[in-house]
Design brief:
This protein is α+β, with helices and mostly antiparallel strands and about 425 residues long. About 35% of the residues lie in helices and about 25% in strands. Strands 6-7-18-17-14-15 form a 6-stranded antiparallel β-sheet. Strands 2-1-3-4-5 form a 5-stranded parallel β-sheet, with helices on both faces. Strands 8-9-12-13-16 form a 5-stranded antiparallel β-sheet, covered by helices on one side. Strand 1 (about 20-25), helix 1 (about 30-40) and strand 2 (about 45-50) form a beta-alpha-beta unit. The N and C termini lie far apart (about 105 Å). Mean pLDDT is about 85; it is low at about 1-20. It comes from Frigidibacter mobilis. This is Response regulator receiver domain/protein phosphatase 2C domain-containing protein.
Length: about 425
């Protein structure tokens, strides 16, 4: 038999977040249930009664009480068994459980707590103490429900962030494909010379860009670029620069200048760097800047005209094995309006190789934080002197992975040019 009691106010258990509204009283004594129910109803609580643990479980499943007062000693299912069964049944919602008992031994209290009870009331129950214990239980329930609500909000926020991350991750995967497509041709032979490219972002997308483009029948332009920062902003900048140095659309390539006879010539390398510097500061108007190595290579004579703008030094590996590091450094592009750039030249002989590498290689660090450096780069080149083309670059990456332990903190890129001798039948 159940006897509900309900009023419009709830005292300390009044309306509000986490307020105790429904109390289930469980006792095999009808008189004891009635006494407790009247006391609680006068205090403003909705009261439901149950004469046994089994009946209380059924009611709890339907009505989900906030708090339970249960006698310990009941026929059939006693208070401890009922408490254990309730905790199993009510997974996902916490119910405050107070045991009513005449037992006062410490071992009895410990047994009750181990069974899942939250508090005890000694029979006969004092009305004032009853209200105080329920008020204490209400404070705990309020905190528990506030915590659950905060956890729900955190979980909901994390789900939303995960959904956003998954969407962004898919977009970045596609962006990586698009960025890799900027370097459409990773290797080309020019007869008695060949060029190979390496581009490996450290994340989904990166700020490195490498490439080459024909200037005319006997000359080719090589470039290695490293945009400041990482991620989407840097990747967008590389896309813009790829258009400005396009090998498929010479009319858009800022290096190339068409003569009155329709023949393309190239700006001197220092002028290319200066032009890019003005363009970046005045037209693109971004806070990004980049380092640059640009080389204009004559495929017949082996003469190379270069400009270095904050990029690691270009390296020539001579046919005899000697390593020559060129250039004087220079300022990055897009950093200072008054920056000036100086070109320099070198001569390649048959069997010589030119490497334009980003600082993702020279600044790669081992487990102790020691960087590879330009001397380390020279050692790797010497170790792989017998390899050529893409195989040389692949071997360099393997050696770099062995040096760093397999992790690259920065994008890794390079242009590898091999000069085999004068180009035959050049136009």
């Amino acid at each position: 038999m159940t006897l509900p009691y309900q009023t419009q106010t709830t005292g300390e258990g009044g309306p509000g977040f986490g307020a105790v509204r429904r109390v289930l009283v469980v006792d095999d004594s009808r008189m004891q249930r009635r006494i407790l129910s009247v006391t609680l109803a006068r205090a403003g609580y909705e009261v439901v009664e149950a004469a046994s643990g089994a009946e209380a479980l059924e009611i709890a499943a339907r009505l989900v009480p906030d708090l339970i007062l249960s006698d310990w000693m009941m026929p059939g299912m006693d208070g401890l068994d009922f408490c254990r069964a309730l905790r199993t049944q009510m997974l996902g919602r916490y119910v405050y459980f107070i045991l009513l008992t005449s037992r006062t031994e410490i071992n009895d209290v410990a047994e009750g707590l181990q069974s899942g009870a939250d508090d005890f009331l000694t029979k006969p129950v004092n009305g004032q103490e009853l209200r105080a214990r329920i008020a204490a239980g209400e404070r705990i329930l309020r905190m528990e429900r506030e915590l659950n609500e905060k956890n729900r909000l955190v979980s909901s926020t994390l789900d939303a962030l995960q959904s956003l991350y998954d969407s962004l991750d898919r977009d970045l995967i596609e962006a990586r494909k698009l960025q890799q497509s900027l370097v459409r041709e990773r290797h080309r032979s020019f007869g008695n010379a060949e060029v190979s490219l390496l581009l490996r972002p450290s994340g989904h997308v990166g700020g490195d860009l490498v490439g080459f483009f024909p200037i005319n029948a006997r000359r080719v332009g090589l470039f290695s670029i490293d945009v400041s920062g990482h991620g989407i902003t840097s990747a967008l900048m590389t896309a813009r620069l790829a258009g400005l140095l396009s090998g498929t659309s010479p009319e858009q390539n800022i290096v190339l200048v068409q003569s009155d006879f329709g023949i393309y010539e190239a700006r001197p390398p220092a002028e290319v760097a200066a032009h890019l510097n003005r363009l970046l500061l005045e037209e693109i108007a971004t806070e990004s800047y980049f380092t640059l190595l640009y080389a204009d290579v004559d495929l017949i004579s082996g003469r190379v005209s270069m400009v270095q703008a904050g990029h690691p030094h270009p390296v020539i590996q001579r046919a005899c094995g000697r390593i020559d590091q060129l250039g004087a450094g220079g300022l990055p592009v897009g950093l200072l309006a008054e920056a000036e750039y100086q070109g320099f030249t070198a001569r390649l002989h048959p069997g010589d190789r030119l490497l334009l590498a980003s600082d993702g290689i020279t600044e790669a660090a081992d487990a102790e934080g020691v960087q590879l450096g330009e001397d380390g780069l020279a050692r790797l080149m010497t170790r792989n002197a017998g390899r050529s083309g893409p195989g040389f670059l692949e071997a360099m990456v393997r050696d770099l992975e062995a040096f760093t332990g397999g992790e690259f903190a920065d994008d890794v890129s390079a242009v590898f040019f091999e000069f085999h001798g004068a180009k035959e039948n050049a136009g």
